[in-house]
Amino acid sequence: MIPCSGIKGKQKQNASNWAQKFFPGEQYIIGDQAYQLVNWLLKKYQDNDRVSENERRFNKHLSGKRQLIEQAFEILKGRFRKLKMMDIDIVQDIPELVVAACTLHNICCENEDDVEEFLEYVDDVSGEQLCGCTFGDGSAGNVNRDKIMRKINT
Q1: Among 24, 63, 105, 133, which one is least packed by beta carbons within 10 Å?
Q2: CA distance 56 to 140
Q3: CB within 8 A of 105, min separation 6: which ones?
Q4: What residues make up the domain containing 25?
Q5: pTM confidence score
């Protein structure tokens, strides 16, 4: 979750610093249409009649990557059910929690602990707005997305 509920002024600068710390250089997270496009978050081009073939190809590529990520998190949430109910207020703790869960999962896999019995596939996509803040006008996000689209299509 992006740390941005009702932020302004100095808090907004802190959120920007947070983004630079966790997503330096050409590192991105993939978001759905509910999120604002920013330079460290990629989302699909809006599906409408004006989408070019290259943009459509980018959307398909990004959707495939997003599905892989969602499947990985479903496996973790299936194996470690507590992850479904955690209310994490300290955003800085989330990466450590994910790394710990992945490490424990890998240990289980190395010991041939079957994950299939733990899995519960639930479609958890509500499409609701998860982040009510803005980090600029989205132009930097458009530039990054267009650059990546060109790389995919070359």
Answers
A1: 24
A2: 20
A3: 75, 76, 79, 80, 115
A4: 21-152
A5: 0.61
